């Protein structure tokens, strides 16, 4: 891959995704003319059209008539035929009146979208205030911050220069396949964070632009991605998605990844394994029969933990929202926060390959060991198998999915509680090394559990919360208990667990110096060339910076012009005592008392003695901070949704894969950080400023990220979004769990023949109808305010021209029937 640019894909997005308004399963007549409906380019050809749509010819380029000198004789002006007689005029007016009434009733009246099966969406025009939040542009906020801070550093200088796209120059950094941007030490290398902000915004715009708008488009996209028909009930799921305004209705590849290995199991073998988990200890089973959902707990020991029944009730409540569309079935769930299935890399790879080809495995015997060796779940050529101490140096996360791959990023394994603690027969949960259809609340890249949506802490209130700019503290804040390892004792290296390390790191009071990156505004004395020392100006800057600026205005302007000519913001390193940096950047402490520890061997006493425990803080107290930290506990972080609901910017560290991961865009909705904390000082110095120069803070940029994080919760992390995920997951699982001979596929032709159109023109039904979200209209402004949008288009067009060796082109795609499409893709 080209290491100077990030992969054009977003997580879970294949490279040849169709344009937003491509044609449906049936071809239009070749005699029809089509125009692109892409906003802002009316009449121009969309760069990724499946066929070459040609705009109608402009008048100035019409073919000359056969008359002399190419000039047609002037035509006499006449009234249009429709109004040349009173009878025709009356007929025309009546027809127009009927058309107007029809348009009003089907939903094209004032402030209403047409919700018919044709999927039309109006573009442009006056925006309707629907009460929904709008995502903003962190890149625009960054440029405003940059201009303000350069004005602060160089008062009186001309700051009217236009800045180019952040990816339009050579930046010297490296986009690693591990999901990290490796920071270059080249003297011309720009600060990496603006690049990441630009990349996050481009990925968001790309996701929005490619979502299906109709059931027909969704079916085609499903078959293009997965090479098979959607599951039976897909039309019901689509109606649910549209009724509840899902923003990204195509992004459910996580489900396909989780269920792919089960496709290779014969029906009888799948039935046998369902029986195994049905009788597994420390689980609960949901029984779906005739549309009702009941809870069954065979292992009474599982009830000893108080969270079992609430979790079972929560999961059952999610399923009851759509259980009428599910066949009779049973599904078994783990009661724990952690995953349990550790399939070997070779076995999982074999099953996935067979399943995606529609074939069944003949090797049904698998060893189910409770003693897990993590390396078995990694490929032989992975970084973990080749070098367990593999490290890439100073870097930032740009792709959270790849950065969470433990096999490619083995530095995480010895510093996270889940991978530090042993997984053996006496562990809770007990691990398994064979493929079992067990639904779990959390998983990592090396687990084969089926991921579901947890409701833990879903209804926790944020409490009183000030606007971002009114929050009194700019430190990164966190309070939490010492979870992360199921049981801490003398045999476990609990001091390296992620939450224990976090407390030790943020409360380090060493006087040794540490270095971190800061934006370069010429604040470093050593940075200035010799000619900057005009009449001893450098010496006077410490006593009178304003006077020095006045005496050296010409030098300042020259230096600033050089910076602007070079384009990007650069960085330098700042070195200060560690205790000063920690005090300035963080308010992070373990709170409460030791838990999950062995008191008999002295582990609890060690925790109590070694940790400076802080009192617990209320949510309102934490909300006083502009930056809030989220980090894993025993499993995923249940407080993430609550933190994102605040007006603070969230920095998130995790090793787990979560159901919303394809929808959550790093550096656009939140700030991702590494679990070794090595990038935290660089991140905080950019957004909060440094101890030496706190005024050089990209405060408005951080506020934009906070706004987008809160909007993510309001539009994409609702109960309806979780229900949509679970509904699609269980429609897919129902097909896998079905008896042999049952046809569990969805056929679009059957949908059109069975559809009830009686309410399409029913005034009462239309009145109660909830408008479908216009997907591109989630951005503040005119649907995407970034000036660099054309750069993204060129990158995407370039990506579609590449031959990936297996995918068919959209020119070929467009003319295929469903049957032909399936044969081609498979």
UniProtKB/TrEMBL annotation:
Alphabetical keyword list: Membrane, Transmembrane, Transmembrane helix
Using the UniProt annotation, give all residue ranges assigned to the region (Disordered).
1-50, 797-826
Transmembrane intervals: 89-107
**Domain Glycosyl transferase CAP10 as annotated: residue spans:** 462-740
- Give start-end positions of Basic residues composition bias: 25-37
Calcium listed as a keyword: no
- Provide ranges: composition bias, Basic and acidic residues: 798-826
What the entry lists under PANTHER family is as follows: BETA-1,2-XYLOSYLTRANSFERASE 1 (PTHR12203:SF118), KDEL LYS-ASP-GLU-LEU CONTAINING - RELATED (PTHR12203)
Q: State the protein's name.
A: Glycosyl transferase CAP10 domain-containing protein
Annotated source species: Cryptococcus wingfieldii CBS 7118
């Amino acid at each position: 891959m080209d290491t100077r640019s990030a992969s054009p894909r977003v997580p879970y997005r294949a490279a040849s995704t169709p344009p937003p308004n491509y044609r449906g399963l049936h071809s239009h007549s070749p005699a029809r003319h089509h125009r692109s409906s892409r906003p802002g380019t009316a009449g121009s050809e969309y760069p990724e059209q499946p066929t070459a749509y040609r705009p109608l010819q402009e008048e100035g380029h019409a073919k000359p008539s056969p008359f002399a000198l190419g000039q047609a004789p002037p035509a006499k002006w006449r009234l249009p035929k429709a109004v040349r007689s009173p009878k025709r005029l009356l007929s025309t007016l009546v027809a127009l009146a009927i058309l107007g009434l029809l348009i009003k009733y089907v939903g094209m009246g004032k402030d209403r979208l047409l919700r018919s099966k044709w999927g039309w969406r109006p573009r442009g025009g006056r925006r309707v205030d629907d009460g929904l939040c709008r995502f903003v542009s962190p890149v625009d906020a960054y440029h405003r911050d940059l201009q303000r801070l350069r004005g602060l550093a160089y008062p009186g200088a001309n700051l009217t220069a236009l800045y180019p796209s952040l990816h339009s120059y050579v930046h010297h950094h490296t986009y690693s396949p591990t999901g990290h941007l490796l920071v270059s030490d080249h003297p011309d290398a720009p600060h990496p964070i603006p690049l990441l902000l630009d990349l996050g915004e481009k990925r968001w715009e790309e996701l929005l632009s490619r979502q299906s708008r109709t059931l027909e488009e969704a079916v085609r996209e499903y078959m293009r991605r997965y090479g098979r028909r959607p599951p039976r009930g897909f039309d019901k799921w689509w109606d649910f998605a549209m009724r509840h305004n899902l923003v990204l209705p195509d992004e459910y590849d996580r489900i396909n990844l989780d269920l792919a290995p089960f496709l290779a199991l014969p029906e009888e073998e799948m039935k046998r394994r369902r029986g195994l988990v049905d009788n597994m200890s420390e689980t609960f089973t949901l029984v779906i029969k005739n549309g009702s959902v009941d809870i069954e707990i065979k292992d009474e020991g599982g009830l000893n933990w108080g969270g079992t029944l609430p979790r079972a009730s929560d999961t059952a409540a999610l399923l009851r929202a759509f259980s009428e569309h599910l066949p009779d079935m049973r599904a078994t769930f783990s009661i724990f926060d952690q995953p349990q299935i550790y399939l070997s890399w070779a076995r999982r790879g074999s099953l996935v390959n067979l399943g995606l080809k529609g074939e069944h495995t003949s090797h049904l015997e698998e060893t189910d060991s409770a003693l897990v060796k993590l390396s078995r779940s990694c490929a032989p050529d992975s970084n973990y198998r080749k070098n367990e101490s593999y490290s890439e140096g100073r870097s930032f996360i740009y792709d959270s999915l790849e950065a969470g791959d433990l096999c490619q990023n083995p530095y995480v394994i010895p510093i996270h509680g889940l991978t530090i603690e042993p997984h053996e027969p006496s562990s809770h949960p007990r691990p398994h090394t064979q493929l079992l259809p067990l639904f779990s609340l959390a998983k990592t890249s090396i687990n084969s559990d089926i991921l579901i949506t947890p409701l833990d802490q879903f209804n926790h209130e944020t409490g009183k919360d000030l606007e971002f700019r009114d929050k009194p503290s700019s430190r990164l804040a966190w309070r939490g208990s010492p979870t992360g390892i199921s049981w801490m004792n003398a045999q476990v290296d609990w001091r390296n667990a992620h939450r224990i390390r976090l407390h030790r790191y943020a409360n380090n009071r060493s006087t040794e110096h540490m270095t971190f990156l800061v934006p370069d505004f010429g604040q470093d004395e050593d940075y200035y060339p010799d000619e900057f020392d005009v009449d001893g100006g450098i010496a006077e800057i410490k006593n009178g910076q304003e006077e020095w600026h006045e005496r050296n205005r010409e030098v300042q302007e020259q230096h600033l012009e050089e910076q602007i000519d070079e384009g990007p913001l650069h960085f330098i390193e700042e070195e200060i005592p560690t205790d000063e940096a920690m005090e300035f950047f963080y308010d992070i402490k373990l709170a409460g008392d030791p838990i999950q520890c062995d008191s008999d061997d002295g582990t609890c006493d060690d925790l109590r003695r070694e940790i400076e425990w802080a009192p617990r803080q209320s949510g309102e107290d934490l909300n006083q901070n502009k930056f809030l930290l989220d980090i894993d506990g025993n499993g995923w972080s249940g407080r993430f949704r609550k933190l994102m609901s605040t007006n603070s910017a969230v920095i998130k560290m995790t090793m787990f894969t979560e159901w919303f991961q394809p929808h959550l865009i790093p550096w656009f909705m939140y700030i991702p950080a590494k679990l070794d904390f090595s990038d935290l000082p660089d991140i905080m110095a950019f957004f909060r400023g440094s101890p030496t120069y706190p005024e050089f803070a990209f405060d408005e940029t951080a506020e934009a990220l906070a706004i987008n994080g809160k909007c993510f919760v309001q539009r994409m992390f609702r109960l309806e979004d979780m229900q949509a995920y679970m509904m699609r997951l269980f429609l897919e699982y129902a097909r896998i769990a079905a008896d042999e001979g049952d046809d569990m596929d969805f056929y679009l032709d059957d949908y059109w023949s069975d559809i009830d159109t009686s309410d399409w023109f029913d005034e009462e039904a239309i009145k109660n109808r909830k408008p479908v979200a216009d997907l591109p209209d989630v951005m503040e402004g005119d649907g995407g305010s970034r000036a660099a949008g054309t750069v993204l288009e060129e990158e995407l067009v370039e990506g579609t021209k590449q031959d990936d060796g297996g995918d068919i082109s959209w020119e070929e795609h467009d003319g295929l029937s469903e049957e032909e499409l399936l044969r081609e893709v498979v």
